[in-house]
Amino acid sequence: MIKRRILILNGQYTPGYKGGGPIQSCINMVENLYEQFEFYVLCADRDYKETVPYNGVNINQWNEVGHAKVYYLSTDQQNLKGFEKVINSINYDVMYLNGFFSPIFTICPLLLRRMGKLKKKPVILTPRGDFTGGCENKKLKKYSYIYIAKLFGLYDGLLWHATSDIEERDIKRKFAKADVFTIPNLSAKFVPKKRYLSKKPGELRLVFVSRIFPKKNIKYALEVLSKITEGNVIFDIYGPMEDKDYWSECEELMKKMTDNVKIRYCGEAKHKDIPHIFEQYHAFFFPTLGENYGHVIVEAMMNNCLCILSKGVTPWDDYIEHLDIGAKLSEQKKFVEIINQMLSLDQSGIDSMLEFNNQYIAEKTDPEKDLILYRKMLIR
């Protein structure tokens, strides 16, 4: 059987990890669908915001990585001429772009397409949350780009991949006539794990694992914790320091914490270490401004770590509603109540919540139905 060739473009791919969820989304798509499709990945030769290339990969050459062929493009080749050369060297059937605002790995190929420099092949674009809770940052610049892109027809005739109903809604708000195909991101298969973290009333271990960036809303989490006056709370923070000015504001809040709340910044976490990190905490406190999916949320659930989430801005509202561990960001007092309620839990209380957590994520990560839809999308 001749496999259709899918060319994926994303700023980062493994061994990178600082680009967050989109890397894992691409890896999971490859590893779940390689038997039906042949995957080629074009990405940068270094991790997000790094100044040096990866070790152990061949730059500006094809590498066998997992079940994909991966081309790590050097910075001097990340221009229209460089993309035209590499993309046209592949006899691909579908081009799959990640990130609406990616200036290099999305906008460059779309410009070449508009100029007639690429093969006339189907193009799929997934915004990767660029419209979900994050478009308000640099609002004027981003909306100006959308206006110009529409004017020049840069996004005409492509298929949009939304990974949630929220993202589909946000795409249609910007591009009313968009042809949108909605399927969740594929995740790794859930394997139940033994729970070894104990829970005593009056003690709570919380963790934050994400980029230190306004959209991820760590400052809000700190504001909530500053209002916790009883019990003993540990709150550890992991993630790349993307916005130092924003982090300075967070540090000012941390200075005002009561003695019963201990906060520590633990640095960046490599993706391979994240499961073990989550195993050490009772809950992942993530009041994000918006996630089209949230691989990090899934990884927390898979590793016996409950998720305290903002309501109405992620696909996981049914989870937080059942467990009553989420609220709208306008309801900060509710988050304070949630933390206090979790502080009061004993072992049987946390075990009951984890039982639902594990049943829930086992059902959500059963890929069979979604794999059928992915195949349908990639052969349109």
Textual characterization of the structure:
- The chain has 13 helices and 14 strands.
- With 380 residues, it is α/β, with parallel strands linked by helices.
- Helix 6 (218-225) runs parallel beside helix 7 (244-255).
- The radius of gyration is 21 Å and the shape is globular.
Summarize the structure in short.
This protein has about 375 residues and is an alpha/beta fold. About 35% of the residues lie in helices and about 20% in strands.
Q: What labels would you give this structure?
A:
380 residues, alpha/beta, eight-stranded mixed beta sheet, six-stranded parallel beta sheet, 13 helices, 36% helix, 19% strand, globular
Share in helix = 25-40%
Task: Give the distance, in angstroms, between the N- and C-terminal Cα atoms.
Answer: 18 Å
Strand order of the largest sheet: 3-4-2-1-5-6-7-8
How much strand? 15-25%
Average predicted local confidence, pLDDT? 92
Please write out the topology.
Blueprint: E1 4-9, H1 21-33, E2 37-44, E3 62-65, E4 68-73, H2 80-88, E5 94-98, H3 107-114, E6 123-126, H4 139-151, E7 159-162, H5 165-174, E8 179-182, E9 203-209, H6 218-225, E10 232-238, H7 244-255, E11 261-265, H8 274-278, E12 283-286, H9 295-302, E13 306-310, H10 317-323, E14 326-327, H11 332-344, H12 347-364, H13 368-378
Parallel strand pairs: 1-2, 1-5, 2-4, 5-6, 6-7, 7-8, 9-10, 9-12, 10-11, 12-13, 13-14
Antiparallel strand pairs: 3-4
Helix pairs in contact: 6-7
